[in-house]
Design brief:
By secondary structure, the chain is α+β, with helices and mostly antiparallel strands. It has 13 helices and 26 strands. The strands form 6 sheets. Strands 11, 12, 13, 14, 15, 16 and 17 form a 7-stranded mixed beta sheet that branches. It has a 7-stranded mixed beta sheet with strand order 22-21-20-23-24-26-25, with helices on both faces. It has a 4-stranded antiparallel beta sheet with strand order 1-2-6-5. The longest helix is centred in the first third of the chain and has 20 residues. The radius of gyration is 25 Å and the shape is globular.
Length: 515
């Protein structure tokens, strides 16, 4: 019997093609460094030559140069690709590394992070010991906290960190059954952690991150997720929901991970089957969560607001942020001519901070708001690099909680406030646009808008949409806005490229007294 070898895979600027015989997880490395894992039938499309799997968006900015690409079956070691390739037009070796030179890989949620297999023993120990301290302090804050997700899986299955995993996650089971009370409790716990000296970042109504400073200079973020029951159904951030008996979680037990003891669910095997399915004992670096859509909708509505656009913009800024001009936009100059000299400028949807820097350099106090973590981080860096004050805040227009908070803070500003929003309204959905006008109504003062109108696509296509300026104006007036000036005509898009139809609006809202 003659066995015909599977045809070799192929690599180009668009992605990887592997043969139809590739049915299990495939790991991809560049010059021996793991960068990505995928499952052909799940992540690819069927072509005549095999499964075509496109490069993940987060890898694309790095794909400009030469490298040795290996694509290997995770389960059987079959080599589908092993060749020296040139991607893009660059000539240097491709290096998928962070700004400190540490190797990065695409994780299970599609972002780039440093996997444990690329983490040295000293840093690994610091992560483990630090996570144990976080759990201890959470218990001190009065909640039943436990190790979970990939760290629990590594502890139970192998006793060590999973090489392709990138972080440690902890959860706690709340006794609250009202989502509002769950949120209040989460904020109380975060305050308790801050009082114990931890640096935290709020992610949603039921999730905050705790920062661990590592010996190698990087900062590891440990998620603290809430779990709770509503009408007998179990919910756990991020996005897990379904039937899970309470005795799976409580009373807490203990597991060991690389010789460090951690509190764990009472029945860790049952928890892992709930999280990863019945095949949780079989390693799979290409694993993707398949969350019940109704559960995701409830968690979004209860704890987050609907944040469909946030991860897309975050990924876009990471992948393409360098294509955005750095100097102030033409609209910023137009807007400043209409501002009171002492106005506080709230740059809503600040992007990478080009206009925040402009207004701050002109002497305005600037509050920069964006939903995307990458945008907020780069805006703060850009302001500080210029020696300018950096007051950068999270605003999720689909999340009424953050809208009302921002509105109250702006309303209490003693001087005039101006909301500045270039292309923002075309980047969000109808509910978010309603919340924008609620924010304007609360803040009072000037509102300066630029949006693409007319027909045809706007860039980035799929993220920015053209709007009907008359509809926008009618909605503004419904919330109490008064039109001061309107300009329609050719302009520029967010890249300063010519745009055949742009509308600029200057409105004012009465400033109410909230004291």
């Amino acid at each position: 019997m003659t066995v015909t070898a599977a045809p070799p895979g192929r690599v180009d600027d668009r992605g990887i093609v592997v043969p139809l015989t590739a049915t299990g997880p495939v790991t991809v490395s560049f010059d021996g460094q793991h960068v990505w894992s995928f499952r052909p039938a799940l992540d690819g499309t069927l072509r005549s030559r095999g499964w075509f799997v496109p490069w993940p968006a987060m890898l694309v900015p790095y794909l400009d140069g030469t490298t040795r690409v290996n694509a290997i079956g995770f389960s059987d070691g079959h080599v589908y690709v092993d060749e020296e390739v040139r991607l893009g037009s660059g000539t240097r070796r491709i290096a998928v590394r962070d700004r400190n030179g540490f190797p990065l890989a695409v994780n299970k949620v599609g972002t780039l992070s440093r996997a444990f297999l690329a983490t040295d023993a000293v840093a690994r120990e610091a992560i483990l010991v630090g996570t144990a301290r976080i759990l201890s302090d959470l218990h001190g804050a009065g909640v039943a906290a436990y190790l979970n997700y990939g760290a629990l899986l590594g502890a139970v299955r192998e006793g060590v960190m999973i090489g392709h995993d990138c972080d440690t996650d902890v959860c706690y089971l709340s006794e609250q059954e009202s989502p509002a009370d769950v949120i209040l409790e989460s904020y109380r716990i975060e305050r308790a952690m801050r009082a114990r000296g931890w640096w935290t970042t709020r992610m949603s109504g039921g999730d905050f991150k705790v920062a661990l400073e590592l010996p190698d200079g990087r900062r590891e973020q440990v998620d603290v997720f809430v779990a709770f029951y509503v009408y007998g159904r179990f919910y756990q951030l991020g996005n897990r929901s379904g039937t899970l008996a309470r005795d799976v979680v409580l009373p807490l037990g203990t597991v060991e991970l690389e010789d460090v003891a951690f509190p764990a669910p009472a029945k860790p095997e049952a928890m892992l089957e709930f999280l990863y399915g019945p095949s949780w004992r079989t390693p799979d670096p290409s694993f993707r969560y398949l969350d019940p859509p109704d559960g995701v909708r409830r968690l979004d509505g209860w704890l987050r607001g609907f944040r469909t656009e946030q991860p897309r913009w975050h990924r876009w800024y990471v992948a393409h942020g360098r294509t955005v001009p750095r100097s102030r936009s033409p609209f910023a100059r137009w807007a400043r001519a209409r501002l009171p000299r002492n106005a506080v400028v709230a740059d809503l949807g600040c992007g990478l901070g080009r206009d925040s820097v402009f207004f701050a350099a002109k002497g305005h106090r600037v509050l920069s708001f964006d939903c995307a973590p990458e945008a907020r981080s780069r805006t703060a860096q850009r302001l500080r690099a210029r020696g300018l004050p950096a007051d950068v805040r999270r605003l999720q227009l689909n999340e009424l909680r953050t809208v009302l908070t921002a509105g109250a803070e702006l309303a209490l500003e003693p001087g005039p406030v101006a909301l500045y929003a270039r292309q923002l309204l075309g980047c969000v959905d109808d509910e978010a646009r309603l919340n924008f006008w609620r924010l304007a109504q609360m803040a009072g003062g000037d509102v300066l808008l630029e949006l693409s109108t007319g027909e045809g696509p706007a860039l980035p296509e799929g993220l920015v949409h053209r709007l009907d300026a008359d509809e926008v104006l009618r909605l503004a007036e419904r919330f109490g806005g008064r039109l001061v000036d309107r300009v329609d005509g050719p302009g520029t898009d967010m890249f300063d490229h010519p745009d055949h139809q742009v509308t600029r609006l200057h409105l004012t809202f009465a400033k109410e007294s909230y004291v």
